[in-house]
Amino acid sequence: xxxxxxxxxxxxxxxxxxxxxxxxxxxxxxxxxxxxxxxxxxxxxxxxxxxxxxxxxxxxxxxxxxxxxxxxxxxxxxxxxxxxxxxxxxxxxxxxxxxxxxxxxxxxxxxxxxxxxxxxxxxxxxxxxxxxxxxxxxxxxxxxxxxxxxxxxxxxxxxxxxxxxxxxxxxxxxxxxxxxxxxxxxxxxxxxxxxxxxxxxxxxxxxxxxxxxxxxxxxxxxxxxxxxxxxxxxxxxxxxxxxxxxx
Length: 247
Ligand code: 13P
Description:
Blueprint: E1 5-9, H1 16-30, E2 36-40, H2 43-53, E3 58-62, H3 79-84, E4 89-92, H4 95-100, H5 105-118, E5 121-126, H6 130-134, H7 138-150, H8 155-159, E6 162-165, H9 179-197, H10 199-204, E7 206-210, H11 218-222, E8 229-232, H12 239-246
Parallel strand pairs: 1-2, 1-8, 2-3, 3-4, 4-5, 5-6, 6-7, 7-8
Helix pairs in contact: 1-2, 1-12, 5-7, 7-9
1,3-dihydroxyacetonephosphate (13P) binds at residues 9, 94, 166, 171-172, 210-213, 231-235.
């Protein structure tokens, strides 16, 4: 049985004082869960989040990083910088980064490799646009994104990669994929991994659903055969609501 992983993606929200309060409120609400709980917070909140999460079962992730080790890349943050303060996870290739910041399948692949080099665990996002879905291309798009993201990784690295299937039309829109559509999309991602890395590896990969997940739809979504939890945006900004999703 794969574990369930519930990750919050705060995007560009929350100040340090709000981060401290949030984790103080969330920790007692999720302390008994058997699911894995991750909060992916803005760079400026990382240090505070890590301090507040000490001694709890809440793990902390970043939302992006550069693939280079260091150098003249003004405004960027390196894998080592995250690792050095004990960040555990990093979101890579979120659709908002692909859409607004020129992230490509190639940079996504480089970033995943760079993350593993320093021991960070990547949460890699894939997903189709509404036009792609309506044109019947969703499966092709997400399986290709998956293949290109994982290119050159070892089986062990693939097993330690979390994939988040986030249909772009469902992000922040209140529209959720149906349970079956989300499950089928995730199955197609898993089948692609079977094709390249074999059944054993594919069985071990955590694949989440993301896109307007909230406490009223999470139970059904996460009960589907192939959905191993969620990457939650808006609903991860309120401790009580997020704790219900974890629950
Ligand atoms: P929402 O849950 O706000 O739709 O965001 C999903 C998302 O992009 C998580 O990474």
